[in-house]
Fold this protein.
Amino acid sequence: MNQAKKIDLLEKKLEKVDSSQTRQTAEIVHLKNDIIQLKEKGNLCFGIISGANVKKGDTKDAIRSAIDGVLSLTGLTADDVADVNLIPWGTHFAVRCKFQSPALVGKLLRGSLKLKNSNFKVQPDHSPEQRAVRKHLVTCGKEILADSTTASFQLKSWRYLVIKNGAKEVYYESDGN
């Protein structure tokens, strides 16, 4: 076997090894995110409502009445909320709501389109690890699309980045590193 054929053969083997390592790395990232999600399972009952007229020191009843409009617009009632707390949100405060079940948080998030022309915003309450992954994916999406005028990106859940270019979609998953 001549030298050129040996080099070609070794390059093909190297490509297979690289491909295998890439697959294994992707599986490790996916498993890390699964672990994060399982650790934060208790967080699934929490949602954040921002834009409510609340201030530090408000009673729980005052906080509940401030978010009552959001709840009614999204098809929920005050009975669906088990507890409310204020959390710092920029220069104001947002309301961290504990709902009776994760399904009610999903209903709140699905109803967010009804809040489009209001000051209210709703989002799930993610853990610091989940926020780090999400932030990393947004940064990556902006970097990848810095030179593109036709492509766009969006996040699915907190762990997937979807790059769209015409009819083509490419999914990325990151562990925040």
User: Anything to note?
Assistant: The longest strand covers residues 81-89. The two ends are 44 Å apart (CA to CA).
